[in-house]
Amino acid sequence: MIQTFSPATFLPPVGERSDRLNGLSVLVTRPEHQAGPLCQWIEQHGGVAIRWSALVIGEPRDWAPALALFDRLVHYDLAIFTSANAVDRAMPRIQERGGFPPGLEIAAIGPATARALARHGVDRCLQPGQGFTSEALLALPRLQRVAGQAIAIVRGEGGRELLTETLTARGARVRHAEVYRRERPALDVTALLERWSRGEIGAVVVASTESLSNLFDMLGVAGQDYLRQTPVIAVSARTAQTAANFGCHHLLLAREASDAAIAAALLCLVANPSLPVGNTT
What one-character-per-residue DSSP string does 139-186 give? Predict the structure, then answer.
């Protein structure tokens, strides 16, 4: 089984009991522009944040198809955003074109994406009540009845095809606006492996399956063995299952992709160092 933790139960206010992490060193693999708040929380609560981005978010190879779609949003019934990165990359271009047209419904794959939309002034959107995956979004009643509707999916290049395939099978006309590209960074792992060999990495945070795969490939054989013996905090069941497939022995699943949920898992790890380990069921 994989342990799942609720942020409301375990996350203390900043500044209160700042030694709660008891010196735990945490490898944070989020993209650089998203790692700051979590690293700051770790440091404010007595931990050591090790910033080592395993994923780079870059410009799409060609903006033209996405911009052409944004110019025609008035002809769409629903726009689905698949990540906070998709929101942050797309919204400035959409706002340059006057924002969302009246009547266009907006959907977010989960709360982190919904919060990103809120930062850009979108205060209401459709989202799953739990699960925060393509599968959970597709289970919503609104997405069961889409025959004849035009749906825009705002995503990164090479995103999962489940939304597209399922909505198309349900009779929708689906188009993509690909607004960013994921890349594996070119980093020297020597110093990281040295820290791991000295026992200076007590947990690893992975925010996506691609980040985990990049990390695993970049570490090489010796580093992969270190990773397998280190607690891994994942933010989705898919990522946790991938970690299990890689042979990781100590997996914790945050309830969502937020800093609060990840912090909750870290606090539980410190409070319960002998948490059960194993694979997803």
Answer: TSGGGT--TT-EEEEEE-TT--SHHHHHHHHTT-EEEEEE--EEE---
